[in-house]
Amino acid sequence: MMESGAKMLLLATANPHKAGELRELLSAIGVQVLTLADLPSEIEAEQVEEDEPTLEGNALKKARYWAERSGFTTLADDTGLEVEMLGGAPGVYSARYAGEDATYEDNVRKLLAELQGVEERKAQFRTVLAYVSPQGEHLVDGICDGIIVKEVRGAGGFGYDPIFLPNGFEQTFAEMNSALKNSISHRGRALQAFAEWMKTKAHKT
Ligand code: IMP
């Protein structure tokens, strides 16, 4: 492994929005956040197959892979939508619920079909973050509770946003502006939990 600076963290995503959110949360403790887009292009293009049976397994698999490959302390995420009446499905299979090449619309249609006639529609989004450094590994998660509405509502966001109504709100994730969604979402909460953990850790080192 290449030696890395103590305060550099690689976020195993090429998504600049996820990185921006984390940067904002960690700026106070002087941690510099890199993404896969900051790595040499032949490395950045590599993909890790997300074939573990749990969100934790996939997040750890990605974080370990990129930590080893880059030499940087690494954070990776995996997210799923867990519907109570479906025993936690689609869960870790959220991205490919309606099949390997499913679009967001296909997945939404399948979930609405599965819940046709079902009145009990409790669900939660859950994001797991896995941190892998030479000193060890750490997992945190973030949960957003809500219900699956009966028809799509709103044009913002992505994935299951048009059918997820977070508890305590009257707008689906797709009807909210992104700042509000990020402040209450599973991913936002996981990132906040991670930032809190990093801060306590920074005080100890
Ligand atoms: P990922 O782990 O962030 O790639 O998320 C896996 C899948 O979960 C995505 O393909 C989406 O279908 C769904 N998903 C993740 N986060 C969200 C969200 O914030 N809103 C809606 N759907 C999401």
Describe this protein's structure.
With 205 residues, the protein is of the alpha/beta class. The protein has one domain: Maf protein. It has helices spanning 16-26, 41-44, 55-70, 104-114, 178-184, 186-204, and strands at 8-11, 32-35, 74-83, 90-91, 122-133, 136-148, 164-166. Strands 1, 2, 3, 4, 5, 6 and 7 form a seven-stranded mixed sheet that branches. Helix 1 (16-26) packs across helix 6 (186-204) and helix 5 (178-184) packs across helix 6. The radius of gyration is 18 Å and the shape is globular. The protein starts with 7 loop residues before the first strand and ends with a helix. Mean pLDDT is 92; it is low at 1-6.
CATH topology: Maf protein
Helix content: 25-40%
Which class of secondary structure composition applies to the elements? alpha/beta
What amount of the residues lies in strands?
A: 15-25%
Dominant shape: globular
Q: Give the radius of gyration.
A: 18 Å
Main beta-sheet strand count, sense and barrel state:
7 strands, mixed
Q: Count up the helices.
A: 6
* Structure ligands: inosinic acid
Name given to the CATH architecture: Alpha-Beta Complex
Distance between the termini: 22 Å
Order of helices and strands: EHEHHEEHEEEHH
Number of domains: 1
Residue stretches low in confidence (pLDDT < 50, at least 5 long) are 1-6
CATH class: Alpha Beta
